Amino acid sequence: MIPDEIRKTIVALHAKGTALRVIGRMFGISRNTVRDVVKRGHEEQPDQSGSCEEHQPLIADEYRRCEGNVVRVQEELKGRGIEMAYSTLTRIVRDMGLREPRKKRAGAYTFAPGEEMQHDTSPHKVIFGGKPLTAQCAGLVLAYSRRLFIRYYPRFTRFEAKVFLTEAFRFMDGVCRRIVIDNTSVVVAHGSGPSAEMAPEMDAFARLFGTCFVAHRVRHPDRKARIERPFAYVEKNFLAGRTFHDLSDLNEQALDWCIRVANAKPKRSLGMSPDEAYLMEKPYLRPLPAYIPPVYQTFERVVDLEGFVNVDTNRYSVPERLIGKRLEIHKHWDRIVVFFDRKQVAEHLRVMDKRDTRVIHPGHHSPMLRDRAHQGPSHEETALLGHSGVLDHYVAQLRKRSSGRGILKLRRLLNLKQDYPADAFLAAVAKAYAYGLYDLARLEKMIIDHVAGDFFRLSPEEDP
């Protein structure tokens, strides 16, 4: 709305013969607006400020009901017969303080070479064999040179944290004097921000490398923006359009991406690539210790009756002589090592992408008796064969007519062979084989008939 003083000036200038174009340039308005002001003369524009003010309570109610959507507020007001321009409505909303205040200007953090590293994790959707799964992406970045290192894990506990940081320190070939983290319980034992106290095992791990963990204030993630920002870059660049066979394949491709893309691409904020900036920062990094001990967890397990020990829902074989013994288990990131009486007795590749899986090392378990019983001829069959061609044929036919391997019938036939004279036994078997008779009860009766005269021979004088 043009103030009344300007309207009067425009009319006066026009009366003196000043062109509309010149007047418009003088006041920064269009010729049509100047023409409209001249046409109306000194007529005052209606003041609509009062009408807008009287609708403020209604606007406030509709704004809350429409959850801050000013377009919907305008539609609701129009439904009530109140016509109001969108620009006017937004001005009233701002004047009433209904909208959230604008964000204040933020500062910037600057870091000297070798001063700080930043570490964080983020859950990412990863495609394994066509199936989407969630994996934890752990990242470490040098705050000065922006050199990045990432790895993926099924979950992220203190064990995975130490495994990751050890690999990251090796990748950076040095450490900074502090590592800024959020207030995660993986590292922090209790407290938050400046008053946070680190878990003793994580504090000892940091001191081994000559560094320390520092937690930023709660709700202040910008303090570690150097590592927060790359996670979006990882999702949009590295994961986009990629599928992976397993976790090992994912981490191999992630390392290759860090080397070829993330650290080789120039950054506008640096004016160079992270690898080039890293060459300037490398002399300021603290060197790694001469010996880096392996990272592993220790458990005690009792060997079950099947000869296995259980670690993370999966079962690993040990020599069966250790059944019932208490063993010491070392869980490394990629393998399981088993000790008994301070001696290594087994080592297996660790299973991470499966559950309830049995891993058996050849030689740990001898075949079960029932497995050995089905290998080769039975003991009874071996004892019967090789004495007579007729008996061999009879045994073969008897086994065909029996369930399984015919152990019970062969055992009974062996008992008949051992209980009765060989001649009578073989004669009865030959006769039974000729007639196709494989009923062992009838075979025994035939054997008895052959030996009855020998065992029960009576003289005529003894007859009653």
CATH topology of the largest domain: Nucleotidyltransferase, domain 5
Q: Numbering strands along the chain, what is their spatial order in the largest sheet?
A: 3-2-1-4-7
Strand content: 15-25%
Classification by helices and strands: alpha+beta
CATH superfamily of the largest domain: Ribonuclease H-like superfamily/Ribonuclease H
Write the layout of secondary structure elements.
Blueprint (H helix, E strand, L loop, with lengths): L3 H12 L4 H8 L3 H10 L8 H6 L1 H10 L4 H10 L6 H10 L21 E12 L2 E12 L5 E6 L4 H15 L6 E3 L6 E3 L6 E2 L1 H9 L4 E3 L9 H14 L8 H16 L11 H8 L15 E6 L5 E4 L2 E4 L8 E6 L3 E6 L2 E7 L8 E2 L9 H5 L5 H6 L4 H12 L6 H13 L2 H14 L4 H16 L9
Parallel strand pairs: 1-4, 4-7, 10-14
Antiparallel strand pairs: 1-2, 2-3, 5-6, 8-11, 9-10, 11-12, 12-13
Describe the structure.
- With 464 residues, the chain is of the alpha+beta class.
- It folds into 4 domains: 4-95, no CATH class; 117-284, Ribonuclease H-like superfamily/Ribonuclease H (Nucleotidyltransferase, domain 5), CATH 3.30.420.10; 297-366, no CATH class; 372-455, no CATH class.
- 42% of the residues lie in helices and 16% in strands.
- The chain contains 18 helices and 14 strands.
- Strands 3-2-1-4-7 form a 5-stranded mixed β-sheet. A 4-stranded antiparallel β-sheet has the order 8-11-12-13, with no helix packed on it.
- It is elongated, with a radius of gyration of 46 Å.
